[in-house]
Amino acid sequence: MKQQLQLFIRKAIPIPFRCSDSNIPRCHTTIEYTRIVMLLLVFYWVVPFNIMAQTNMISNGSFEQVNKICEDTSMGHEWFSRALSHWDGVSPAGATICDAQCETVQDKRREKICPRDVKPIHGNIMLQLSYMGGCMDSNHDKLGCSKYAGYLLPEPLELGRTYEISYWVYLKKPSNPNYTKHIGFNIYTDKILNQYNGMLNGSEFLLDTIIFDKWYEVKKNLRPLCDLKFIVFGTFRNSMGPETYIHTTESNVEDNSFFIDNVSLIDVTDAEVEKVEEVKRYCRYQEKEPEGVKTILSDINCYFESGAWDLNDSSRKVLDEFARAAKADPLATYRLSSHADNVGSDEDNMVLADKRMKTVQTYLYEKHKIPEFRFLTFNEGENAPSLSNDTEDGRAKNRRVGIKQTIYSLDALIYRKAIQDIHIKEDFDAALKKLTIWINLSTDFEKILMLEDPRLGSLRDDGRWKNFKMKVHGRFKNKESLSLYQLWASDQKYRTLSRYIENLQAYLHHIDSKDTIWDVDFPDLNSKEMAEEDQINFQRLEVHLKKYGFPRSSRISWSADKAPILIILHQNELEIMEKYLPEYEKLCRKGEADWKYYAFIIDRIRIMKGEPQKYGTQFGLPLREDQEIFPLVDKYEYSPKEKYQINTSRDIIGLPKLKF
To answer: Is-contact 448 483, C-beta < 8 A?
Structure first.
């Protein structure tokens, strides 16, 4: 072994001098020591340099490759993905891009978006993500929303290799810090869509250390057990939370914000990993992903000859392959963009790009029966080249029609096109055809929102509307469900109804924010007018209850069973609430009603009697640190039995614990 080591050192480190005849033993010893020292120097300088020189596999990890965004930093998915090179917004509510160079004036409502007291750790750009515990997803189903930012690797991570994912994070100290334990990332086998804007599941790569109001670096070691390639940063849900809120105030919407910068992914297989147990062997999170999350079809492009818009054999083959995938997922929607090179005038290239777009749509419909309402179309002309137009190869790549899968559901895209038919094209026939298709895809809840949508006002004057409305009524689960939905819509008309209606259609922030046709407004009522409306709704409810009795959730559609309780609560009369409470409690015990609303009634009754709340569901606004609007049982010796029992009471009926 000693001889082999000496031979290796001699070969590895040649010495540029020889021993003289005199004192040969000492000379050879000096040469050997010289070789050893030089070999150690090589390991000291070269090996660490190779480790440090490892390539970051994430392009634009510092987010500096960004289009101009100072006009509006709060972007939806569509604009976020175009503005920030290589990154994807994942959800309809895309992450916020913060540019330290922007000098936009921020009003009080937006002062927590890209706050000036947080600067990027590197360069000028950072991402702002947030968690909203009182947000409801756009499917009106689950509480809790998060903004996400995703990165799709060009190739999946190799099996058997070890990778280090690192990023810098800045946590703003929130009013409720519980959510920060759920910040981190997850990684998937392919690009995903968080279609309904709810929370993604995950627990494997969350923050181990929580530090507020300063930048710090987070590192995780990963060894893939399958082909992982899509990294998503944000807040993730698991069996431990995070907490959600029934009431959302301005104080807990953007307070739960954090920032990320300098994202890095490197291969550390050949580096010394200090503790092998810190390397997570991972393929996928085992809990079921939320509904609405699915794999995205890869982007495709059709290319055209200069000045031409007819399809060649290669483009037809590409479209045929796309059509097979689109038919396999008939509810998927796509963004179709048409482009031209810079040869010719701007006007001519817009016309040429439009012809190319129509050629592609016509081919897909005539040969494969894929309808136009599955596409969001954008005529870019020469304005969005993928390569420079200075070379022939670049111009050839710019003469294209691109197809990219979107995050929007098919019913949301169809509804958008119906609104455009009414307000832009004034084509009521086309709008009714689209809405007829739409009612086959929509839920009962969405149907009642459509019938209440004031943007359809001019369509209601059409002679065909009456028959169409009767057809919609016939699609409800049963007459009881229809009646309850009508009561709910009437109760919420001057409260939250407009926000629900605005979620019916696909909304493109960078385009639609400047167009009033997407706004849903109902007149404001004063307290007297609101009380009169609430009284009318209660009278209608009494008629309904005499006919059907209190609703059981198993026989009606989602949320319809909430209408009676909301109307009763809005009466704010002790006698009425005490009258209906026993019947509602019986339904809760049979699993036919929601304990959350039972808790609402109990606490409202206690407040009206001057007693502390039992469940802590009622809050007043505005909230101040030195002010407790409605007292809780825990803070008052209401009775020895109920002292310190509020979370025990909540736990019994399945409500999450409160933190004091």
So the answer is: no
The predicted pLDDT at position 112 comes to 78
What are the percentages of helix, strand and coil residues in the chain, rounded to 5?
Answer: 40, 15, 40
Instruction: Report d(CA 407, CA 37) in Å as an integer.
Output: 61
Q: 13-22, 267-276, 591-600 — which is least confidently predicted?
A: 13-22
**89, 148 Cβ separation under 8 angstroms:** yes
Q: What is the pLDDT of residues 332-353, one digit of tens each?
A: 999 999 999 999 899 999 999 9
0.90 exceeded by pTM: no
Contacts of 497 (CB under 8 A, 6+ apart): 449, 452, 489, 522
Q: Average the pLDDT over 590-596 and give the result.
A: 87
Distance between CA 6 and CA 15 in Å, rounded?
A: 14
Contact yes or no for 122/62 (Cβ under 8 A):
yes
C-alpha to C-alpha distance for 513 and 507, rounded to whole angstroms = 9
Instruction: Find where tokens 């004036």 sit.
Output: 105
Please give the C-alpha separations between residue 249 and each of 34, 133, 134, 311, 391, in angstroms, as whole numbers.
72, 10, 8, 54, 55
16 cis-preceded (ω within 30 degrees of 0)? no
Q: Is the pLDDT of residue 610 over 60?
A: yes
Q: Would you mind telling me the total number of residues written for the chain in this entry? A: 660
3-state secondary structure of 363: helix
Number of H helices, E strands in the chain: 19, 18
Which amino acid is it at 513?
S
Q: At what angle do helices 563-571 and 527-548 cross, to 10 degrees?
A: 130
Give the residue-averaged pLDDT of 541-564: 88
Is residue 142 within 8 Å of 200, Cβ to Cβ? no
Which range is least confidently modeled, 296-300, 309-313, 369-373, 613-617?
Answer: 296-300
Q: Which amino acid would we find at residue 496?
A: T
SS3 assignment for 597-629: HHHHHHHHHHHHCCCCECCCCCCCCCCCCCCCC
Find the mean pLDDT for residues 583-606.
90
Coil/strand/helix, residue 146: strand
Token couple for 426: 């004034």
Of 254 and 514, the structure prediction assigns the larger pLDDT to 514
Contact 114, 70 (CB under 8 A): no
Which residue from 98, 102, 101 is spatially nearest to 83, judged by alpha carbons? 98
Residue 329 has pLDDT above 50, yes or no: yes
Helix axes of 428-441 and 410-420: crossing angle, nearest 10 degrees: 160
The answer to whether 181 touches 210, Cβ cutoff 8 Å, is yes
127 within 8 A of 98, measured Cβ to Cβ: yes
Closest C-alpha to 324, from 374, 367, 375, 377:
367
